[in-house]
């Protein structure tokens, strides 16, 4: 897949991925991995390095924003991402089951999963589901594409999508956004 971008995921693909996670040995952990990718746009390395201190408010409860700190972000491009309600529900459930300290995503041995382990988890999931051209970056591309398509509804701009993605350049953000052939057809019919 060298030189090709990871494919974006449809709603049905995401549902299949969440179903796959629910049937795994670690359903809540794996659900969080999927949701952090598709609902927060995190990279595999950011998912692996995310700690509870980046998610909890001062009272120790799951906050309203996820703080991707510079030390875990690519090119030290930390950012704040509002937590999607579906992700928040999973985080609250995970918080009830642990002390809320250390890494959010833990390996079977108890320590943090490595970025490569996250990449491999996605690879195995997509292979099992028969999704061709998908990788650990598919959820991130899906998040950025969906955000770009909906930003006008929220009264925002592509700059807001750029900030959520943690990109230094708007051109980088634009490369992540998939076109929509149905929208292109509708647009051409309006001309």
TrEMBL record:
Annotated signal peptide: none
GO molecular function: DNA binding
PROSITE patterns associated with the record: TYR_RECOMBINASE
All copies of domain Tyr recombinase, residue ranges: 4-189
Keyword Iron-sulfur: no
Database matches in Pfam families: Phage_integrase
One GO process term, biological-process aspect: DNA integration
InterPro entries the record matches: DNA_brk_join_enz (IPR011010), Integrase-like_cat_sf (IPR013762), Integrase_catalytic (IPR002104), Tyrosine_recombinase_XerCD (IPR050090)
Keywords from the named record: DNA integration, DNA recombination
Keyword Nuclease: no
SUPFAM superfamilies: DNA breaking-rejoining enzymes
Protein name (database record): Integrase/recombinase XerD
Organism taxonomic ancestry: Bacteria, Pseudomonadati, Pseudomonadota, Alphaproteobacteria, Hyphomicrobiales
